[in-house]
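User: Working on a comparison across species. This one is SH3 domain-containing protein from Paracoccus thiocyanatus. Can you predict its structure so I can line it up against the others?
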Amino acid sequence: MIRLFLFTIAVCGGLALAIPAAHAEIDGHGPDAWRVTGVAANDVLNMRMGPGTQYLVIGSLAPNARGLEQITCVPLLIPSIYNRLSETERAALPQRWCLMRTPDFAKAGWVAQRFLMEDGLEEISGPGAAPGADISLKTIGDPLIDGAAALVRDLYADFAASGSQADNPFADTNVARYFFANMAQKLRGHGSDLLYGAQDFQGEVTRIAPDADKPMFRGTIKVNADFTNFGREDSIAFYLRADTDQPGAPFRIFHIEHDDWSFP
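Assistant: Here's the predicted structure for SH3 domain-containing protein from Paracoccus thiocyanatus:
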């Protein structure tokens, strides 16, 4: 499962203690302000009546909203208890939602905690493997096809790890690393919707693999991404071919398909 951790550093008696920001506010040492992260420049972060996507949207936050006040979060996770949980138990925890308020008190509502980070700090990955290293990647021994599957894996991993618009794979300056260069304008405002079929994501990417029946046909490679979101299994297909507008004509994504939609 892709999991992002935000860390704040507390210095006491000369010792630097790493405290997960997602839980630090419980014991009174949390950040004074938060900001929105991981939302495309042309998108917004929904604010809901309650902690979950089943509640109505009652407002929104801009992708660069800052100075937000965190009132409370659920589930309530006291650090001493969280630290005793196994990786399996932590992975089974429901997505965390936080009740946030704008600095002018004009808006308040529940938002998914994964779209928040401490205001004034950059996002830092927790210790361990690089983002996406735990996504199952199936290869078939063909360098071209396996390379295409790895690119789709990197797209998911890099999107999950992005802490700002500057390193978001869907930003204009980064699109050509994953997609056809001429798709930049069409991809503006997109992100989670094309990777998970929804803005809100709680689950894991279970496997990235070349299509079992026809991995390559007439110069086009098909790669399937399997994942679970809110307990529901789903899959999205990515189609790649050589982008002759880029130096060296690398294979890039030019089309995405889901059972209910396709892009572009």
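For your comparison, note: The longest strand covers residues 232-242.

User: Helpful, thanks.
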